[in-house]
Specification:
The chain is an alpha/beta fold and about 325 residues long. The chain contains 10 helices and 14 strands. It has 2 domains: about 160 residues, HUPs (Rossmann fold, 3-Layer(aba) Sandwich); about 120 residues, Elongation Factor Tu (Ef-tu), domain 3 (Beta Barrel).
């Protein structure tokens, strides 16, 4: 999959100016609903013998406009995670469309003309009937249909995926994560929920109290999980059980951003600088503030015992 960051550069990869079949969205989590659209996109592109292209909006508009991190929806996946999953569906191109002040001021008509028509030369555009775009969300499905007739591209309503009568959406996935229902989350995503990142140095308090951790910066304005979890850490192709805390460490820090801390059970070794994937299996408890480091240490011992039980009961020990 070829990734571009400017619609006008698409023609450089298309010597015969053949155009494409495209869709657009935030694709947060790339859940089964998104995956159905990717299949629909690929099918239509094959039908027209054109390349398939996914426009991924980055950052999310809600993040751009939010005056504080807690005012925007929690982010399920980072751009590199989205692109990796999209590529696995055999998509030919991805346009990472930067959402900034200039784009937010672009009228809906200019959005269609400059990005979709002149930039990408779309032959067909697959989109949900609730999609809004352009300055002050002035563009909608009806306007796209009108613009499609004028500029010669087909507008196709995207397919939807339901579970027990409820449409699968990123909001639905966030709600299930908040409830700690990882079985349902796995069903919605078609895979277990995970967070990947490079192991960084922390305060190393965990090692001092007997519970060394691998620390990851989640790199999100707002994360979808807080608390202690039973997880697996994927390292060099192997799944290792781990007790994972995600939060703000209220017992030892007065301020600072959220951090993911993974204590790998029965493991020793230096992982600084390595990239690991943390796969969530079950929630153990909410984040808590303790009166002392000794109280925290006792609770961590209980947490790890509970993680062992949950990992064994999951059948994935």
């Amino acid at each position: 999959m070829i990734v571009i960051d400017d619609p006008n550069s698409f023609s450089q990869h298309q010597p015969h100016q053949q155009g494409c079949v495209a869709t657009i969205g935030k694709f947060d989590g790339v859940h089964l609903g998104h995956q159905l659209i990717l299949d629909q996109l690929k099918s239509k592109a094959d039908e027209l013998s054109l390349p398939s292209l996914v426009i991924v909006i980055e950052p999310h508009p809600e993040e751009f406009f939010a005056s504080a991190p807690e005012l925007c929806p929690a982010r399920l996946s980072l751009i590199e995670e989205k692109l990796a999953i999209i590529e696995s569906f055999g998509i030919d191109y991805a346009l990472v469309l930067r959402f900034d002040r200039e784009l937010s001021q672009l009228s809906a008509e200019a959005y269609v003309r400059e990005i979709l028509v002149e930039g990408l030369g779309i032959a067909a555009f697959i989109i949900g009937d609730d999609f809004r775009f352009g300055h002050q969300r002035g563009g909608d499905f009806a306007l796209l249909q009108s613009e499609g007739k004028e500029h010669g591209f087909e507008v196709i309503e995207s397919s939807t995926y339901e579970r027990n009568g409820q449409r699968i959406s990123s909001t639905y996935v966030r709600d299930c994560l908040k409830d700690g229902d990882f079985t349902v989350v796995e069903q919605l995503l078609g895979r277990p929920y995970s967070i990947s990142g490079e192991v960084i140095k922390g305060r190393q308090l965990g090692g001092e109290i007997g519970f060394p951790t691998c620390n990851i910066n989640p790199r999100r304005q707002r994360i979808p999980l807080l608390g202690v979890f039973a997880c697996h850490v994927r390292l060099n192709g192997e799944l290792l059980p781990a007790a994972v805390n995600i939060g703000f460490r209220p017992t030892v820090e007065a301020e600072g951003g959220a951090l993911l801390e993974a204590h790998l059970l029965d493991f020793s070794g230096d992982l600084y600088g390595k990239t690991i994937e943390v796969i969530f299996r079950a929630k153990v408890r909410d984040e808590m503030k303790f009166e002392s480091v000794d109280a925290l240490t006792r609770q961590l011992g209980e947490d790890i015992a509970r993680v062992r039980e949950l990992i064994i009961s999951s059948g994935r020990a």
